[in-house]
Amino acid sequence: MMRAIVWTAYGPPDVLQLKEVEQPRPAANEILVRVRATTVTAGEVEMRRSGPFNVLTIPLRLYFGVFRPRGQRIMGQELAGAVVAVGSDVTRFEVGDRICAHNGFRFGGYAEYATLPETGMIARIPEQVSYEQATALPTAGLYARYFLERAKPQTGQSVLVNGGAGSIGSFVVQLAKKSGAAATAVDGSEKLEFMKSLGADHVVDYTTEDFTNTPDAYDYIFDVIDKSSFREAAKALKPGGVYLHSNLSLVRFIQRKLSRHRGGRSSVFVTDQNDIAGLRTLLDLVASGEIRVPIDRTYPLEAIADAHRHAETGQKEGHIVISV
Asked: Which is nearest to 164 in space by CA: 152, 175, 173?
């Protein structure tokens, strides 16, 4: 048996309940991991409360359960821990390996043990990197890297990151600076100093200033929190500038298709992909000190509902980590 957080219904954080459940056993092609750390992501918060509505809402309800999550659902898309057993066909990992992973909709991170297919999104953790640092990389870190890979900003160019203090944004700011670009980070007034500590050249308090009212200012705008639209943001782009987002809202999709802007300005949708090499690169950057993993708060497993409540406030800076 093991302790795990079971997702019992759609609704407020208290639907996540600590229970004793059967410990999983690895199949022939799987590894068994003693989980040491996991995270609370914005995606998990949205899935738990089943909102806000977007183009994924209906298929996700069909997948997880229309009226309530089917079966014994244990959330946690990303995790870090040590391999404690391997299936008979496993060749890539050994008992004792320190790993971090993204387990997708298989979930499993909100528990003391989890199984992972050895061909999944898994990377070994360098000894200089803690479990708490490593567990924040497979989702937010990789998303930030996808944004930068699509844009490829150069030295002397200017980028704006809307949501610069969040999980993804905190990495985008650091990686943009590493590319040589000038970074402007946008978030609430209480987060301005934090964004400066990430290396942002300029910070904007969205409660008092609208970044879209700055004409022809940026080569790239990264909206990592899906709070703007291409139509709104285009005027702040230089000619040839690019607006990058990951918003799956049907309204935003239609707006994007109907919007036409002169000067070669364009909109690019960014999504995740299976990129183990990219995850290894991020781990090496953390190990060398070239980027850092900002952790807002760390909660024990039994306080997962409190962690979700804090995530819903929108006040976090960086990542919410769960120590298992």
From this structure: 173
